[in-house]
Amino acid sequence: MLRAIKTTPLHRFSSLTSISRSISTLILAEHDGGAIKSQSISAVEAAKSLDKQTSISLLLAGSGPSLQQAAAHAASCHPSISQVLVADSDKFTYPLAETWSRLVQLVQKKGEYSHIITASNSFGKNILPRAAALLDVSPITDVIAISASNQFIRPIYAGNALCTVRYSGSNPCMLSVRSTSFAVSVDSSKCNEAPISQVDLSTFDEDSVGKSRYVNHTAQDTERPDLGNAQVVITGGRALKSAENFKMIEKLAEKLGAAVGATRAAVDAGFVPNDLQVGQTGKIVAPELYMAFGVSGAIQHLAGMRDSKVIVAVNKDADAPIFQVADYGLVGDLFEVIPELLEKLPEKK
């Protein structure tokens, strides 16, 4: 059961002292190319906020050598990780919701964790609701701050308001967290290796899976940084008018060593693939520098980038909502501004 509440004094939580002493957390981690994704490491950082004494286990699933490499990386990527649990089976070659949710149910039955956390990305959003249904609990999504072991803050109304939520249900308390809100500042070279254990899959319920199947996976072949983790993001909107014109954004990103983003309108118009969409229904980003060209600033888009450190907006409409959140704004035609930037910016070394 979830209840939205106003912030209350800490003495109201005195009755939860005994609960906080037994906090143990399971992180549902995503890996790729033999390494743990940064969003999953941010989930570990979030787990630290639950309690200083919490025991953190990290769950990996997959098959083959890349899984073992990812397990070795997980064991030494963060000092707060107590153990790494590895489910090695062909059933987990692809991260399907059915197989992963059954795995979470199996691991929870054995470990009896008080909290289960994953990143609020496509991986976490796919698995968490189904796993929560199997465990008969209500998940709390898109958490940006943790006040106590059962009290969390999440944005509502496209980020225009913050809701404080107290969890009063049974264990486990299941969360998805925004990785941009839990920055990782750990030198992994100084971490001690956590023990790695294999998950016993002898009782894994294979009959319950198979309702969906893996078809294929596509990814852009580019040297640009990942949109979700980039320090600089260059975003284009519908004002670019065509996919051909959108290449100006890509050229500017190459010069700045930046990631490319797009508004939903640009994606719907077919200018770029949907994995570049920034916003409430796309990716949430918080780079050091966010540059928006031809972006009006719809509320759904602002929800995905308002936490950027410096926001620069270029739009010929002086009344565009994007200027209300921009640190620097230029009223001008992007078809004049971008070519001039491309001419004057030095080539990336």
Automatic annotation (TrEMBL):
One Gene Ontology CC term in the entry: mitochondrial matrix
Primary residence: mitochondrion
GO molecular function list: electron transfer activity; flavin adenine dinucleotide binding
UniProt source species: Populus tomentosa (Chinese white poplar)
Physiological role: The electron transfer flavoprotein serves as a specific electron acceptor for several dehydrogenases, including five acyl-CoA dehydrogenases, glutaryl-CoA and sarcosine dehydrogenase. It transfers the electrons to the main mitochondrial respiratory chain via ETF-ubiquinone oxidoreductase (ETF dehydrogenase).
Domain Electron transfer flavoprotein alpha/beta-subunit N-terminal, residue spans: 25-208
Entry binding sites for FAD: 238, 263-264, 277-281, 294-301, 315
Name recorded for this polypeptide: Electron transfer flavoprotein subunit alpha
